[in-house]
Amino acid sequence: MNTRLCSKVTCSHPAVATLTYSHEDRTAVLGQLTPVYEPHAYDLCEKHAKTLTAPQGWQLIRHVAVPRQESQNDTTESTGDMPLNQIVKSYDVRGLVGSQLTSAVVSALAAAFVDEVGAAGRDVIVGHDMRDSSPEFADAFAQGAQARGANVVSIGLCSTDESYFASGFLDAPAAMFTASHNPASYNGIKFSRAGARGISIDTGLGAIRDRAQIYLDNGITEVSQPGSYRELHILVRYASYLRELVNLSSIRPLKVVVDAGNGMGGMTVPAVLGHASDLEPLPLEIVPMYFELDGTFPNHEANPLDPKNLVDLQRAVVEHGADIGLAFDGDADRCFVIDEKGQPVTPSAVAAIVARREIAREKASNPGAPITVLHNLLTSNIVREVIESDGARAVRTKVGHSLIKDEMARTNAIFGGEHSAHYYFRDFWGADNGMLAAMHVLAEFGSQELPLSEFARKYNPYFLSGEINSTVADVAAAKARVLAAFEGRATVEEFDGITLSSPAQANWWWVNVRASNTEPLLRLNVEAANGETMAAIRDEVLGLIRA
Fold first, then answer.
1. Tell me, what's the pLDDT at 439?
2. Are 356 and 386 in contact (CB under 8 A)?
3. In the chain, is it the N or the C terminus that has fewer CB atoms within a 10 Å radius of its CB?
4. Could you give the residue ranges of the DSSP H alpha helices within 101-171?
5. E-assigned strand segments in 272-419
6. What whole-number percentage of the chain has pLDDT above 90?
């Protein structure tokens, strides 16, 4: 029996449909009720599903199986003709399995990918996470890619950063099937050009989408010489390479609790930090949590960016008397750190720690060479301060995976850090790797005697609000209210949304307000020199956004 209720505040009827938003193309998609509750989605009962209308300026797309009123002026889509711009996002492909993402769609995207990257007659890597739909989609991708002449190299179950490793190590384009931290009813594709280079909507993903639509409409034209298929196991090579980059053999013994969230960290952590790869033992006692690969995520969402998904790990670190806790997301490309008291170490602090190590390593191997480190605009000011104090050039970037990978290549940066716990390394082909960041933290922390809470304190001197989301009917109007209220009080910069900075030097603060790429949300981030100022600015801006 369905136990989920309608999300409307005054309604207590059973839900029959789920509503999701795509901010990029201003569409609201009303589909069948998802198997599990989706964050940032809305469950609706039959009455509210029938009477739903799109927000002003938005298009409502209603799947055929969802109740509707015949007089409603909306667009009804079946699985077969769902437009691809609903699932092709700025940096990847992501959608609901069955209703938006199907084997036919995947094969068409594979064929288009091969055409776009010129992979006919060349290797194309395909890997997948532990979601139930991932093996089927990987097979469908192989069929579409082979039809257009690519030689498919299947690396099977893997983390996203394993996929990047394969793409870099083999210098071949790659496709990784994962929906990262999204719930079980989603899946998606992360594409890479050869050498783990990113692909965004402006650098090839849009062309892949458009060509794939043609293949969906007319069928995939098979080339005269279809490609081959082979399997390759890379986990041991991946683990060995990471250990070459970060030597953990001489650190003090550490007890480490790791929450894999039933995601791919359950496979990569034993291989890299444990004994599963038959590598030399490390001075680490790993206490495993939720290492069983399970795409239904039975214990909690594999999204450590949401504090509620860290609660089990925080408790376990304290109960086990551990030195440190690590939490990985579903595809294990992001890692979050917990200290011995069960408190989070911010991603900005991690970025500062890793930046310091990478700068020192570069200075030792290339004395006198210019050094560049990237950080996105939402990281704490401490990141820039550490980079500059250690003698490197800090380059501020917008938020965005492929964008930062492009900037890593353009600037020859040795490292890049994001507020969302994505960490990019020149020695990892400019791609992000949560495991590598975790190893740097273990190495630095394990080379001194302070507990983690004290060791990390110097990397967290300021006060951050964290990212606060607000659903708004009119994004532009909300931004205008904020700008009007701070006119004459702050420096305004239009860089990935709007950034307001105080003119004061001692009691400084900054605010960033930016629109979500996937929902009608505004995202707020605030940092200040002291907690009182941060709270005051945060509350003022929130009031303006939600007015």
1. 98
2. yes
3. N
4. 103-117, 134-147, 160-169
5. 284-289, 324-328, 335-338, 344-345, 372-376, 393-397, 415-417
6. 78
Cβ proximity of 453 and 365 under 8 Å: no
Please tell me the total number of residues recorded for the chain in this structure.
547
Q: Between β-strands 491-494 and 468-471, what pairing exists: parallel, antiparallel or unpaired?
A: unpaired
Residue 24 confidence (pLDDT) above 50? no
Instruction: Compute the C-alpha angle 159/240/357, nearest 5°.
Output: 90
- The yes-or-no verdict on residue 21 having pLDDT over 70 is no
Mean pLDDT across the chain: 91
Interior CA angle at 336 toward 344 and 193, to 5°?
155
Catalytic residues: 180
Q: How much is the pLDDT for 327?
A: 98
Is 79 exposed, middle or buried (CB count within 10 Å of its CB: 0-12, 13-18, 19+)?
Answer: middle
Tell me which amino acid residue 340 is: E
Question: Structure pTM?
Answer: 0.85
Q: Spell out where 381-429 has E strands.
A: 393-397, 415-417, 423-425
Q: Which of 316, 333, 346, 312 is nearest to 265 (CA)?
A: 333
Residue 249 reports pLDDT greater than 50:
yes
Q: Is the pLDDT of residue 76 over 70?
A: no
At 426, list the tokens. 């020149």
Per-residue model confidence (pLDDT) at position 454: 98
Q: Which amino acid is at 506?
A: A
DSSP 17-31: EEEEEETTTTEEEEE
Neighbours of 472 (CB within 10 A): 18
Is 157 a residue whose pLDDT tops 90?
Answer: yes
